[in-house]
Specification:
Layout: H1 17-29, H2 32-39, H3 43-57, E1 62-65, E2 68-71, H4 73-100, E3 104-110, H5 116-125, E4 130-136, H6 141-146, E5 152-156, E6 164-172, E7 174-179, E8 190-191, H7 206-212, H8 232-242, E9 246-249, H9 254-257, E10 261-267, E11 272-279, H10 285-297
Parallel strand pairs: 3-4, 3-5, 8-10
Antiparallel strand pairs: 1-2, 5-11, 6-11, 7-9, 7-10
Length: 308
Amino acid sequence: MTDTDADGAAPPVDLDLRVVRYLVAVADHGHFGRAAAALHITQPSLSRQIRGLEKQIGATLLLRTPQGSTLTDAGRAFLTHAAPMLTAAGRAGAHARAAASPRRLTVGYTTNLVVATAVRELRRRHPDVVVTVRHLPWNGAHPALTDHLVDVAVTRLPIPLDGVATTLLYREPRALLVARRHRLAAKDAVELEDIEGEIMPRVSDPVWDSYWRTGPRPDGWDAPDGPVLDDAAEMFDFIAENDAVLIVPADSRIPDLNPELTTIPLHGVEPSEVALARRDGEPNALVDEFATCAAEFVIAGTPSPRKR
């Protein structure tokens, strides 16, 4: 029978997160021996720890059999809270370390964006701070932030916003990337109607894909389909080899990297947006300081000169 307090409610349970992690390991491996080996502890010790947790909770969490172990209904109910509990604990520790000793900062930036001037300014203002810069793939800002690989990131939008807050830095026009031999390459500018029916590569992120392919649109125009290519180099090679098209930022440096490609100004579409992204609800004085530097020094570049 479970003890209750004076109000009839069960008393709070002070969980040892190390033992919670042990339970998750046993559930993942389905076997005490394999879990103990993965955790680098002995099987008897692991079994005692889990039994202690069960006694503390007042319910059997695992059924032990010669073939292995399985979760009980109570175990499955507990496990739904275990992973978020461990994640929250990890984030709490990282948050506390950042607040207690904000002498390090890792700045992320996604493909074709430049943060060097803002980073130099931050280092000038805080010469005692160790500032690390990390390049991220086009869709890498959100996972890098939520996994604590970076403290702040400069990225093109859109990105997922769960756990992340963004501040707009600037807007930039968009352009069409084509092979130099493409029928549109000689034009001074193009509109969406000019690329109707053209092959356009896709990416696996549906929000990003729809935004950058500007479709579907209210007038019924839909972005033409192409293969899904998440690797930027593969995508550029595909465009060069197949006379495909791709909508990119107007200041894209891609033609400088691949001389077979060129950009054409694209009219009639809203500008794209570059933003500073940070973990939501996590105060950090150095991130605040970098945000100030970024607002001043991370600016739209000049579109690459057309090379015909």
